[in-house]
Amino acid sequence: MPIFQPELETLPRSELERLQRGRLRERFGVELEALPELPFRVKAELRDAYPFGLLQVPLEECVRIHASSGTRGKATIVAYTRADLAAWADCCARALAAAGAWSGSVVHVAYGYGLFTGGLGLHYGAERLGCTVVPASGGNTPRQAQLLEDLGAEILCCTPSYALAIADHVSEPARLSLRAGVFGAEPWTEGLREAIEGALGLTALDIYGLSEVMGPGVSAECAEGRDGAHVNEDHFLVEVVDPDSGQPLPDGEVGELVFSTLTKEALPLLRYRTGDLASLTHEPCACGRTFARMSRVVGRTDDMLIIRGVNVFPSEIERALLAIPELSPHYQLVVERPGHLDELTVEAELREGECGGERLEAFVAERLGRALGLTGRVRLGPPGSVPRSEGKALRVLDRRGA
Ligand code: DLL
Question: Are 164 and 330 in contact (CB under 8 A)?
Fold first, then answer.
């Protein structure tokens, strides 16, 4: 499969390091070796500087504003110079090419357009690659399915949960021309990947990013490897650190992702702590790209649930649920605190044609208990009973404050 910028994406590691060193020195006056000694930057600093306090260029030089979704507190504003937008489009074009898109491919973007970075990020990436873009944005799900059938999109870009919601509305899967999906903006598991691939008949690939660092395209999976997202290391230095001690962790160990931007003008950041937990590998990839790969994000430092003393990430519950054939891949977790202890209710959904009943609920609860040591209630509803998302799925309903 062709690579969008092979001269950069397949740079020998020694040359890549030389490039990174030069950029780090030029932008920040910092040597690569000194990086681990530098303090971390955190989201709170961006929030405190709301809206434009951290801009490193005059606002007139910024040609675009975006914002993080702000689900955990006040949104943070980010800004882009013309060069920032060009680099971002390159990164998203790389991601689309890694999924098999090329000049002339029809790309359907069902990430939300607006302050969220998903829609416009992938949109400009697709145009950069020379694709024909369908800027569907999120919402009106039946029409999404109709457009996919009628316009012959080959590549679908949206959140993994929204891909499933769209699949519900596809009347004739055989009429689809979809080859690949570029899915991200929320955690998802291998089980969800299989469910989406089965429902839409495409290769489902992971794309990762965050507004503070750029938006989608900080890293993306390739169709050949399908095993970890290549970090665009000519633009971003990546580290994985122990979330407690802040000490760097070796390849293969899960810790918190930390990024330093190497090319950004408007909002450069050194050692930004993402809160996202993943591991890194520098093992060669079948696609020929030399960039390190990050694993799936297994969770965030702040989304771990503690249910009666058991620590569990929503993604672990997803993995256990999706291994049960009677259940559809839709679920929601409700956490309440009626007394002193947190209580979890897993609300899941039966597949078409399956019947529920208390026996199956007890079986699912027992499975979760065995797999995760978790005590919780399970409620199984009919197909369609779990609310569908049009963007980032709301997996955890936290009613502890209510
Ligand atoms: O979600 C950017 C994006 C848009 C990425 C479209 C991919 C596709 P924010 O709204 O700032 O930006 O949210 C960033 O979303 O810190 C992660 O916790 C989560 N996230 C993003 N991509 C993934 C992924 C966009 N592939 C936050 N897997 C990040 C797991 C993801 N979590």
Answer: yes
